[in-house]
Amino acid sequence: MAGSNPTPYYTPTSKHTAATYHSPFPLKRPNLYSLVAITFLCSAFYFTGLWQNRGSSSVITTSNIVHTTIPCFPSKNTSTNSPTSSSSSKSTQKLDFTTHHSTDDVGGVTPDDSIKIYPPCDIKYSEYTPCEDPERSLKFNRNRLIYRERHCPEKKELLKCRIPAPYGYKNPFKWPISRDLAWYANVPHKELTVEKAVQNWIRYEGDRFRFPGGGTMFPNGADAYIDDIGKLINLNDGSIRTAIDTGCGVASWGAYLLSRNIIAISFAPRDSHEAQVQFALERGVPALIGVIASKRLPYPSRAFDMAHCSRCLIPWGEYDGTYLIEVDRVLRPGGFWILSGPPIRWRKYWKGWARTREDLNAEQNKIEQVAKRLCWKKFVEKDDIAIWQKPYNHVKCTEFRRRVKNPPMCPVQDPDKAWYTKIETCLTPLPEVSSEEEVAGGQVEKWPKRLHEIPPRISRGTINGVTEEDFQKDSQLWKRRVSYYKSVNNQLDQPERYRNILDMNAFLGGFAANLVDDPVWEMNIVPVEAKVNTLGVIYERGLIGTYQSWCEAMSTYPRTYDLIHADSVFTLYENRCEMEDIMLELDRILRPEGSVIIRDDVDILIKLKRIGDGLNWDSQIIDHEDGPLEREKLLFAVKSYWTAPTAQGS
């Protein structure tokens, strides 16, 4: 089997202790009359259910479901058996969602002929990123960093094994401690501690790394650097909520923005700066592997209130300004672009940068000219920081473009389409306005009010099939659903249990909106196969996300997320790609002892539970929040803790 490792992996010495759950409905000893009445009612509901589902091609078998309602006859154990005999003992227990392992515990799979067992991959795959594989990337064009873009394996190359955590893997530090500390065993790379020692990025201290908050252009710390930015633009009134950091390093800028209620997506390629994005994720900071090259960034138009580059080494003035044109597409009207590092303040730093004054001056002039052609305004340049502002609309820009035609305005297109979409050297037109004072596309409210207000894309009717009433109903729906989730998994109410959360099919961001007061961040995915592209709505609410096809791997490292939520994902991808490949991807990006909530049709969940058993997940199928007669059910699962074996001879 591709990628599997014959070396035996450690197995746990004992099973996890099951969490104790109590029914909210205490049961009394029944008498004869109540037993007869209950039996009659249960039988009536049973035959009613059979009549309602008489056209169904399959029957919902109660042996596969853990019911959360009152049973017809009280018993000591109300859980029922799972689909396989191997997991019947598991399904009679409630899931334990707590973490237990912070040192050297490891786990494995108990063989069972009735389910397909997925063996551990070789340890060389411990940091495997399928679509950004360093070896595969060398086959592609190095011009403009195209080889650093997504290049996914063919179907025959897909691994059918479980990615191991490195030996000694520990549960990450809890937020906010994790902002400053990470275990060395989890990301065993010291390269940056040497390469960036002077710049205060990261320090190695015994069994852990410390992140002092420094950066190439802010050796005194990201907090002080952000304070300097805050003296030039207002970071405190809620008008700036979403940000993007290009070439992020270990994402200290994004990490320190969080205390100001600003959430940034940080991205960087998988390159010679080994594991920089992995460090960011280990710190509990939103980040993705990515590069700005020949394809659009995987975000909708008008998404970010602020974009940032601190010595990110992106040639902004080259290729007819292509990269700044792409930043313009994803910036909201009135949004800011911040640049520090070369060529800003070149008169002071040119010798240290080992470049000529003429070269740096020419580079800055190119950037200034591109920004002017995009109709941006030079907002301020002070010391090491320069800031430009995108116009609120294109009224004056349209007049300017009659004289300056480079870049041209883009023809009619979908500005939100951004999955393997080629970057065009044309200016994305903003939605039309009736006056110079109007904000193109609509003004969003300041944070936190914008989270619950009707997003402009919906109020203006630009999202097909989604009305203001739909938005309000969806908000109420997810308030109820999240409350139900917490009744099943009480760890969702524990402030330190989860930090990095993924919603695989976010729609309007309702799941994330109901967790916003918790110390978590959530990556909201809008699948490219979804009928309606709603990612722009998610950003207008002040949340973050990206596009993704779940027939491919995500642009992130193994062990990224503490909790993964999937609403109707497997129904969406039925007959598009294999269930087991999506489940293996979930296993790759889920941390040891991480949790999964999958909402889907019961027949699909029964299949997924068997795959989960083969992945050595502890799982149970739970009734829908509206009761057992709903075909849609919930699969709650916990990934077991296990690691690669210790290195030979250690």
TrEMBL record:
Residues 76-110 are annotated as: Disordered. One of its GO terms (biological process) is methylation. Residues 76-92 have a biased composition (Low complexity). Belongs to the methyltransferase superfamily. Its main location: endoplasmic reticulum. This is Methyltransferase. Its EC number is 2.1.1.-. One of its GO terms (molecular function) is methyltransferase activity. It is a single-pass type II membrane protein. Keywords: Glycoprotein, Membrane, Methyltransferase, Signal-anchor, Transferase, Transmembrane, Transmembrane helix. It is found in: Endoplasmic reticulum membrane; Membrane. GO terms for cellular component: cytoplasm; endoplasmic reticulum membrane.
